[in-house]
Amino acid sequence: MANARSITLVAMNAVHHDARTLNLARSLVDAGFDVTVIASGTMDGVRMHTWTDPGGSAYRRWRSFNAFASSISTRASLVIGMDLFALQAASRLARRSSALLWYDMREFYFSLGPLQGKGWKQRVIAAHERRLLRRVDQVLVSGYLDAKIVRERFQLSTPPHILLNTPPLRERVVSNYLRETFSISNADRVALYQGVVHHGRGIVPFLDAMDSLPDVHLCVVGDGPARAALQQQARERGLSARVHWHDAVPYDALHTITCSADVGLCLIEPISESYRYALPNKLFEYLMAGLPVLATDLPALHEQLVRIPAGILVNQGLTPHSIVDAWNQLMVPATYDAMQQSSNRVHKVAYHHQAAEVLHAIEQALDA
User: Fold this and answer.
1) What is the pLDDT of residues 29-48, one digit of tens each?
2) Which residue of 31, 78, 172, 332 shows the fewest CB atoms closer than 10 Å?
3) From CA 183, how far away is CA 176, in angstroms rounded?
4) Distance CA 328, CA 160 (A)
């Protein structure tokens, strides 16, 4: 028999790199819930069933994860699948426990950027998601616009709960980490991209603009399937001395690194519906670190930078001219200082504010 306040989070990720799972698990523990996490990686202060990721293809990893989750005897009153790839395992655990099943639709899996041009894979994933949604009691999404689109697309009987990808409240720290790590002069500017390294995340357009930004260094902090190809492109453009690559770090170590940059890059390319409406955690992490932002003028990013005017929007074409023009606007001292001050407004949407409504909804669902 499951504890009435027992919750299991299921994530096919390394939890110490997965801000969304990590922050939710910690908030649930702080609220007095009995929390179990099924994932790879490590997390202090919570019961974990640790999956050993075998690597290889996504399908091989998914099969391995589902087999591992099926072997676990944990019981819960609520099971949350923390992304689509964990949802089938979460659904099985929920049925076995007669538990509620929630689904964190953290992006539009029916239109994924990395699957652009891979129609049959995208159709299989979309059909898989629609089938599993029949068993889901409640959906979480990561943006205001997402909630409307998802409810209409899937004809959900109840509106999704919104849980923005904001970090916990943190003070800025004085850090010279990136300059010291990569021997970057204090006279040069540091642009930062942090997160999974995929195509379509604006790295190539920024490389194209760097010929006209001779005093700018790009630091990429993260790993991903496009990293090797993008490193090769940087070499071919003769930018190896100004483009620097840093492996992914645990989420708790990221803030100090972020604080050591000058500008955060959120140049999402609208190659899919998921990317078009993206409101990624990196945007809020940059703002929490006091970094003005360059962001693509896409609906969710536009809306957020109207709420917190701490960045310059770049037209969707992301031409070198438009990026250079936006960069030069941002580097005007009065503009940069004003945007750095505006970034403080992110404190009003820090994670504890975001989580409060979701925690209340969980309390109500478990008490029903």
Assistant:
1) 999 999 999 999 999 999 99
2) 332
3) 10
4) 40
